[in-house]
C-alpha cells in the first residue's frame, strides 16, 4: 500500500465522533493573537487598563474632564494611524 493510501486509510478509520472544534486549547499564542486583533474602543480600553489607568482618572474634583479624555482618545487614534502601536 502506498503512503498516500495508508494515510487516507488512517484518516478514514480515525474516530472523530467526540471532536469539538470549538474546544480549542487555550495557549499563550491564542491569547496573544486575540489581543493583537483588538481594534477601536476595545484596544483603547485594553491599553489604558494595561497602563494602570482607569476612566476614573479622567475626573477631577468629582467633575468629568471631557477635554482630557477626548485628547487621549485623539492621541490614541493618531498613534494607530501612524502605526506606532
Task: Write the SSE topology.
Layout: H1 3-13, H2 28-36, H3 40-50, E1 59-60, E2 63-64, H4 66-81
Antiparallel strand pairs: 1-2
Largest β sheet strand count, sense and barrel closure? 2 strands, antiparallel
Arithmetic mean pLDDT: 77
Question: Which band does the percent of strand residues land in?
Answer: under 5%
Extended strand count = 2
Oligomer class: single chain
What is the molecular shape? elongated
Secondary-structure element pattern, one letter each: HHHEEH
Query: Which value, in Å, is the CA radius of gyration?
Result: 24 Å
**If helices are DSSP runs of H or I spanning 4 or more residues, what is the number of helices?**
4
In words, what does this structure look like?
Helices cover 55% and strands 5% of the residues. It is mostly helical. The chain has one domain. The chain has a two-stranded antiparallel sheet.
Amino acid at each position: 500500500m502506498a503512503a498516500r493510501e495508508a494515510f487516507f486509510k488512517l484518516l478514514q478509520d480515525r474516530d472523530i465522533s467526540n471532536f469539538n472544534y470549538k474546544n480549542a486549547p487555550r495557549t499563550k499564542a491564542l491569547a496573544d493573537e486575540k489581543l493583537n486583533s483588538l481594534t477601536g474602543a476595545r484596544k483603547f480600553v485594553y491599553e489604558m487598563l494595561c497602563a494602570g489607568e482607569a476612566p476614573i482618572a479622567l475626573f477631577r474634583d468629582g467633575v468629568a474632564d471631557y477635554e482630557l479624555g477626548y485628547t487621549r482618545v485623539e492621541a490614541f487614534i493618531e498613534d494607530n494611524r501612524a502605526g506606532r502601536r
